[in-house]
Amino acid sequence: MIEIKDIYKTFGENEVLKGISAVFESGKNNLIIGGSGSGKTTLLKCIVGLHEPTKGNVHFDGQEFTSMSFEERVPIRKEIGMLFQNSALFDSMTVEENIMFPLNLFSEMSKSEKQDRANFCLGRVNLKDKNKLFPAELSGGMKKRVGIARAIAMEPKYLFVDEPNSGLDPKTSIVIDELINELTQEYKITTVIVTHDMNSVMGIGDHIIFLHQGKKAWEGSNKDIAHTDNQELNDFVFASKFTQAAKDKL
Ligand SMILES: Nc1ncnc2c1ncn2[C@@H]1O[C@H](COP(=O)(O)OP(=O)(O)OP(=O)(O)O)[C@@H](O)[C@H]1O
């Protein structure tokens, strides 16, 4: 479980986050949604420590992370898996070497244990036997799956995902969402996903926070969204005439 309390983040004169609090439970897909520039990625970065909040703090299972020193944060960092927007694979490394990268950095495993773990993770994302391929030889969806395999290599308690569906077709997006959803439930991971994708919101949005102008403007589940009377959220989620018409039929 991750708890964020009254997070503010200011860049120069620009106050991007204005006092955001939320609880992200384990075994759930926690989605951060909102319009472009509403502060989603900034919030994600504040949670994982890539940005320091101007004010407020973040607790990982009760441990206050924000005021910790770099060294004190290391044990929590080892429990964090991250999947970035462009998959962020190392182009000069094979699929297997990419997955073993965090194990080489952070684990005490022997070479054969690392190999076994990489094979297990590849199997888990349905990419068995793709060990020796290079990222350039993979489709966008396969790259995402390798990114997920690498993110789960260290058996993370916390998984952070920035725009998992960017650049993917709708069908592949659903495959990636389902994979994240399965892993989250299977390993009871606290998963936090930044997304624009309404299919993801409706498909796997167990818990959603909606940011508007740097504030949390709404919170609920995908089941609640169809019945929201929050105007900004309604305008954001059901932006097109087509989705508005579909909503009206619900
Ligand atoms: N490192 C930075 N330095 C200065 N300003 C920044 C920095 N990072 C983000 N910002 C500003 O913070 C605001 C919110 O950006 P952020 O990327 O968090 O929005 P977002 O909701 O993730 O947007 P998008 O959906 O377009 O990715 C923007 O005005 C942006 O210019």
TrEMBL record:
The keyword Nucleotide-binding applies. SUPFAM superfamilies: P-loop containing nucleoside triphosphate hydrolases. Residues 2-238 form the ABC transporter domain. The keyword Lipoprotein does not apply. It holds the Pfam family ABC_tran. Keywords: ATP-binding, Nucleotide-binding, Transport. GO terms for molecular function: ATP binding; ATP hydrolysis activity. This is Phosphonate ABC transporter ATP-binding protein.
